[in-house]
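Predict fold of ABC transporter permease; 267 aa.
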Amino acid sequence: MKVFLEVIKLNFKISFQYKWTFAMTLLVQPILLFINIALFKSIYTYNDTSSIKGYGFEQMVWYYTAYYVILSFVWNGITNQISRSIISGELATDLLRPISVFRFMLASAISSRFVAILVDFLPGMIIYSLILFPAFLTLKSFLSFLIIAVLAFLLNYLFSFLLGMSAMIIKNNMSISAIREVLQAIVGGGVIPLEFMPVWLNRIFDLLPFKYIIYWPIQFFLNRVEGDNLGSLVRIGSIQILWIVAFYVVIQILWKRLIKKFCAAGG
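Predicted 3D structure, encoded as tokens:
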């Protein structure tokens, strides 16, 4: 555990060197927010309604901002990182560390999210709130969101690591990573709220992990969870944990098999 914490501290310092990369979103997001405000104000006015698919004007505008808020908590580049380390031969060195590759990359992902929250999420929330205050947000819904977001981070990390392991077979997994990003954006509700999708299609999406990485954290953030908040938190959180356990077990089994066949560059 001590080694794991030291790795987090080291990667935090490394990630913080790229703080301006995170901060660039503070310049872009307000512009997109203004565009969404103008766009949806026209849509709501034209339809003479205060709600579309259950979304009020503020919630609809914030939906697309919330997508980037979620990414501040859950994003990682582990899938491509594993592929690059295999192609460059660095994975052979990684295997010699006094900490497993899985835990080392987890520490790296945690560190980068800490930086993103400090440099991107917190300042962003202040700036966005000054432009369009999220009146729908309550302390209870925000705390529920934090719990779901942390579980979403773990789920996304495990899913990314599992896909990254494909590089131990095909070496370059860029195409798999690209397909995953598209699916996660569409099926996870990043492109359009899933309420606009057919009911039967949403039933299929319920069986996939993407909704529990993107869509449900957004719903808790927007305070749109129907019924008892605690009951929904337990239900969604339990499904996330089931996915986390399932991915972890699969990773442990596959890693032991694949690492036996792994051959570093040059031999």
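The chain is about 75% helix and 0% strand.
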